[in-house]
UniProtKB/TrEMBL annotation:
Protein name per Swiss-Prot or TrEMBL: Replication protein B
Record organism: Escherichia coli
């Protein structure tokens, strides 16, 4: 997951392009993190380009949260407490 939501991967890509590069399981993780349901997940993800897409903002917010979460996460998780690497 860290590799999928690395800020380095997003450089130069729009949100739509970035989401299109994700695998199905990574995209599902993003949608579930956004609090969306299977109904939204099963819709074509290109709908995020439409202003009328009601789940677009939640998806973009979740994407930013996942970028932030994995930006400071250690490479190997052992007994590190979350408060040691989350800001």
């Amino acid at each position: 997951m860290r590799g999928a939501f690395s800020k380095r991967r997003q450089v130069g890509a729009s949100e739509y392009a970035y989401i299109s590069f994700l695998t199905v399981s990574q995209r599902r993780t993003l949608f579930m993190h956004a609090g969306l349901t299977e109904k939204e997940f099963n819709q074509p993800y290109w709908r995020i380009n439409e202003e009328s897409c009601y789940w677009r903002d939640a998806l973009f917010r979740a994407l930013r949260e996942l970028f932030s979460l994995f930006e400071y996460a250690p490479t190997i998780l052992t007994s590190v407490k979350p408060e040691q690497y989350l800001h």
